[in-house]
Amino acid sequence: MGKLSKKHAGLKNNRFIFKMLWREVRGALRHFVFFLSSIAIGVGAIVGVGNIAVNFEAMTEHEAKNLLAADLEARLNRPLSPEGEAVLSELRQAGVQSVRVSEMVAMASNPESTQTQLVELKAVETAYPFYGRLQLDPPVAQPFEDEGVVFVEEGLLLRLKLAVGEKIGLGDADFTVGGVVRREPDKVAGPFSIGPRVLISQEVLQRTGLVKVGSRVRNRLLLKTAEDWPLEKLKNHLLEQWADESVRINTYREVRPRLRRFLDNFTTYLGVVGLITLLIGGIGVGGNVHAFLTERIKTIAILKSLGTASSTILKIYLGLTLLLGSIGGLIGIGLGIGVYHILGNLLSGFLPPGFHFQLSFTPIAQGVSMGLLTALLFSIWPLRVVGEVSPSRVFRHEVEAIPNRTEKGRLAGRFFLMASLVLAWIALAVWQADSWKLGGSVAAGLAVAMVLLLLSGRATLFLMKHMGKPRCLSLRYGITNLYRPGRQVAAILLSLGIAVMVLLTLKQVEKNLMAQLEQNIPEAAPGLFFIDIQSDQKEGLMTILDQWVLKRPTALTPLIRSRLDAINGQKISEMNLEGRRDSWYFTREYVLTYQEELPQHNVVKRGLWWDGTPAGREEMLSVEAEAAQHLGIDLGSEVRFDIQGVPVSGKISSVRDVDWGSMTTNFYFIFPPEALAGAPETFVATVTADAADDHAIQNAVIDAFPNITIIPIREILETISRILQEVARTVEFMAMLGLTVGLVVVSGAIAATRGRRVHEMVLFKILGATRPNLMAMMAVEYAVFGLLAAVVGGGLSVACAWVVVHFFLDIPWQFAWRVLLVGGLVTMVLTVLTGFLVTYRTLGEKPLVALRTE
Amino acid sequence: MIEIKNLKMSLSSAGRPVTILDEINLHVPAKEFLAIVGPSGSGKSTLLGLTAGLDRPTEGSIVIDGTSLSDLNEDQLATLRREKIGMVFQSFHLIPTMSALENVQIPLELQGRDDAAEAARTLMAAVGLAERCHHYPVQLSGGEQQRVAVARAYAGSPALLLADEPTGNLDSKNGERIIELLLKLHQDQGNTLILVTHDMDLASRADRIITLRDGKVVEETRRP
């Protein structure tokens, strides 16, 4: 054949492929409802999660800028040299904006009463802040223009008995209180502040005369990028130009608060659940294509006997798969937008006020391409039979139309094909999880789960087949129906089993987490936690608290700050701790306490507590087990502490296990009371009152003792619990998507056998079976499917959940049998319902009509 | 045994009603061997199907052993078939996903017989297929499949056996074998046999022949 005619033949062939493709689509779209929905839901899950992830990324970036109030921050340990200043002014000319921030501790006073208070002074310039919101009450348009005005935290007004508009003394001058600082973007929140904030302009700071040689001022420069000076360029330029200055440069990107890390991880795991959903969908696609080809075997045989090449036929059906995958992907975009809105609502608690979600293109594109690739990957396996169909099939009609007989050469080919498909899927998993480790382990975990599901399914069927048949007719037929040829048991078991496994794993982990949380919030959980109570304030505090009815008597726990000085006579300072990961245990500050009784949530592991020990008590010391292990000490070891220069030592007389999860104050080291007599101490107290009284108690205590810091535990616990619930609901929603696809796959697998089922049912009817007989058979069949998936999926879920709870969350494992029971029952009921939904119409078929139409 | 009165059956084809059976009146006494003959599309199979309660007639009534089929619902009809009627079809209609033995077992099991398996095995032996009990229909030849179908039809010892062109898909040798089998069982069990056929030689062995044309009985001959 000449080149031209070859080309011509190729074109003709392509036209033939497209024509055949069109004929198949036109005739069989109805068959592909399950294909389309499997892919669409999977793509929807990935598109939805992807968009959420992108938005959270944007949000945390935005938040990070707020936390810094700038794009870039330079911390100056000493003022910039003239050369350094020159670099800065050049940048300013190029459009980079800057704000100088000076922070120091100072004394503020009420000029009228001469009352004073330690404050944290912060001086800024007019452009402050570049990002985030400075909220002043009452609002001021240009807060730092007026050189006579300062802004203060409300606590300060309370303590100095001042009001907005009155005078406050700072250093050499008096100023007017211009308003209350409600919100300040770059303030690092923490319970241990030295004093309330006073916010002023640099000019005010000069007027106070507080900045003198030797005064401790922390200077920072906040910078905002310009068009010609993007972040990285600006940072590198400064690092280079300011190499000789004593500065530390941070960009907002390096400020990674915990929330950001958490959301990163969270969306990644949601993505993994999405990926599993798509995998389940893929199994459905495989089943669907298999069923379709089984119907088309004759067509393929005829095409072959008419002289069509296998490769041409393969192209027709591959084209069909790609077309359907694309349509499924497009529907998936719509679903994904819905998923994204639902997730956005479920996670609204994570969003700062005023943050709006936006759809973004990249995750949509990724979702659709993943859907298309999944459709392709899972179709290739069943499509392999196109090459294996013999044209002689035209003359035969078999139940299991896909050939089972396999020659040796073909076996190797199949193995190679399967291996490449598995590898390709692992690549997809890695792409979606954006990590080799996570993607790889998810893929490996799923592979193990799938193998176990198939093996246990096979084993169960084998047992059922050989166990002896139940007497009840419906039971017997329902069960034997399972191992009849062409029932798609594998597809049903895999899709449903994996969906059940994921859902129940998440449910069990959630139960364990919630149980742990609830255990730590007893009925009468402390609402308030007071710290920094001075010895002479103890009585006064108790008198104030007496005004309220408390749910539990308030106990004051003494705290003594110390450092380890020596262990068994060896000074810590002389130990070589370099390279030790736990050196922190040696060098950290230890907060000591003394107690008569063994505290709650503490268990003596070795040795004895000192109650009832009359002699030598003052030498005793109790240590927490883990600390003891890291420090290499045990019963009898001598430990010396340095308490503000005074050495105090004790011999370890007991080693305790401490439940750190309990929401109480816990200690590494506890002395008997007489051992620490006279040491400088402060006290902490937990107050358990009616939630409604918390606020009044806080005000009364602050009023009387401004130095006492109050941590509202109840609020914190409520926030944690709310966030956990949001997270749980989101994860559940994603897992439900997986289960939905699982059920779609089940429907598809059952629908694929519909024609055969109608035929069987009609014959059963002719032989005298009533509809209740038939319904009972169906119910048994579907229920056994559900039960198998529930038992195996549930069993695997226990293993998965245990691994997560034990290794990742490190909390005690509780067997959530109720979750498993309910999960198993729901799976069975849903499977039976799905099966009925797909087949109920076949029950009503009139035998004669059905026989006639055959 | 069977009393058919004014039976009429119309179906709609392409939106227009097509009369398949028209004013059929027929009495079949117990133990009779009745052959129904007639050209394709004359309504033979429909008449047989209606007699088995596989569909509802448009008009008229069918009474079997004093029970009017029109008084029964779907499930009662099924129960009636289970107890009284066996059927053999031209295209065998074995359940493809069940072994030969299982196919024969079904009517026995539906009747709640404890010895279903043994009884089915005996029947398989009676039709000469004792060795092929565990074969699936596709693994059997057409003649073998039809023998399984006959065994299945007789399994419940029905009082009425309906055979719809049982030899139509078989070569003459196998067809002859099936007929011998049917007639032997008919004589042994003493049941009523209605046979739809094209084959006049075969029909001539019946006690009575009725000929259908365009849904009407046009001729009735009795064997002398």
Q: What is the alpha-carbon Rg of chain B in Å?
A: 17 Å
Average pLDDT, all residues of chain B: 90
CATH superfamily of chain B: P-loop containing nucleotide triphosphate hydrolases
CATH class of chain B: Alpha Beta
The total of beta strands of chain A comes to 21
- The gross shape of chain A turns out to be elongated
User: Which percent bin holds the helix content of chain A?
Assistant: 40-55%
> Which regions of chain A are unreliable across 5 or more consecutive residues at pLDDT < 50?
398-405
Number of DSSP helices of chain B? 7
Classification by helices and strands of chain A: alpha+beta
Structural class of chain B: alpha/beta
DSSP E strands of chain B, number: 10
Please provide the ordered H/E string of secondary-structure elements of chain B.
Answer: EEEHEEHEHHHEHEHEE
**Strand residue content of chain B:** 25-35%
CATH architecture of chain B: 3-Layer(aba) Sandwich
Question: Rg of chain A to the nearest angstrom?
Answer: 36 Å
